[in-house]
Amino acid sequence: MITKEDIQELLHSTETYRVERTVSTGDMDKFQEAICAFANDMPGSRKKGYLILGAHDNGELSGLKVTDDLLKKIAAIRSNGNILPIPVMSVDRFTFPEGDLLVAEVSPSFDTPVRYRGRTFIRIGPRRDIASAEEERILSERCAASLPTFDTRPCREATIDDLDTEVIVKEYMPRAIASDVLADDHRQLKEQLASLHLFNLLVDCPTFAALIMFGRNPKYFMPGAYIQYVHFKGNDNGGSILNERRFEGCLYRMLPELENFLRDGIITKRPVPISILREKDVVNYPYKALRELMMNAVMHRDYQANMPTRLYQYDNHVEIMNPGGLYGQARPENFPLINDYRNSVVAEMMKTLNYVNMFNHGVNEVRHLLNENNSPEPEFNVNLVTAFSVIVREPKVEVDVMGDENSSGQTTQTTTQTSTEDGVEKSAEKSAEKILKLIENNPQITVRELTKIVGLSRRGVEKNIKKLQEHGILKRVGPDKGGHWEIINEGQS
Predict the structure, then answer these.
(1) What is the pLDDT of the chain when averaged over all its residues?
(2) Is residue 127 domain-resident?
């Protein structure tokens, strides 16, 4: 609260936008309009405003006697519901030989515009007035700019010892700051960290962004700051748990571990025959797509929530869920065209460390990668309000060789699926298919007979038979004379 000496200076101050003097004690509308105007701080000075009862405009005291009832009456303005958002103010009485003064001290609000009974009042020099639409817009934009995101706020319980400063100095700073600028920067470490929004000098503590990225134990300050992986048997979380794991610690150390796990622990590759003699490797989930989705989940999650980021794996799909729904300008109706950052500093650090690009094309890239893998479209749920989830399903692979079954379980005719192979390989595959078909119709057929029918040399037929045997499709039972062929695997996966 202001001191008695400061009050005497204010009585004759030329900073008229900060002071309103009055001899009235009963004009409550006038008082509330003045308090509303001081809270809006239209000049943007961030200086406190003062409503002074018991003084004339020239600063002379009127001889007012401030009673306890008057003090309570003015103090009640703060919470009577007429001024919203509720202003930060205090009220006190000062006694002078010429009389008393009642002083209401009002702090500038960060949450502007502040309104009295639905109207926005501002100070224009010594005058109080209703704000125009343009002035309200300025107050709204100032509010948006002044409200810090969670990751920029100081964590008052933490100290600089809770950060891995060696990693910050040796690994992060050289990437975030130009080498010549860094070489000429001789400030103390805390000041350097503050310039990167990693430290708050006013309260002498790290920001939450610093703890999230470089903290020694971020989960101590943010209980939900970890990733929970669970592998369920079946296609819902009612099945038995096959595997589970937690990824904890700062993002700088956690993210490389997560990348390795995605690549080695979730991504699987299996050969699928696409013709009699050729196979194609098919992955259950494209690594880059899962990585992109997990990095976005970590970057956009609400670190104030106690819920972890979830990575749940089922028999035929993966679900990723992070606490915190769409943020800021991003809404269900404009997703994914519009993007916004709940954790702007974390996002910038992840970009510096090459985990994200911040070009707002991550969703489209995921769709492209899944399409290349013949996987279904990702299923985003943006209507959960307090969470965001995406489901990625395994591809439906159709095997269509020699009467195999496709994904729908229906028998198909023999086809040869080739796209980029040269003519020689195509011809060889056709010959092998023809040989296999002849053997299927006549298991006792000889190489000599096959040579005449297929139109290849004996060496060419023998070469095709050898390939069929190597692929586990054909075997010889008995001697060359008197034996027979047996088809043991007709290209099934």
Answers:
(1) 86
(2) yes
pLDDT, tens digit, 9 for 90 and up, residues 394-409:
887 654 444 343 443 3
Look at the chain and report how many structural domains it folds into. Answer: 4
The per-residue pLDDT for range 328-347, each reduced to its tens digit, is 778 888 888 888 888 989 99
Q: What range does the domain containing 16 cover?
A: 4-146
Under 8 Å CB-to-CB from 167, ≥6 apart: which residues?
A: 214, 252
Same domain, 306 and 167: no
Mean of pLDDT values over 289-294:
95
Phi and psi torsions of 214, nearest 5°: -130, 10
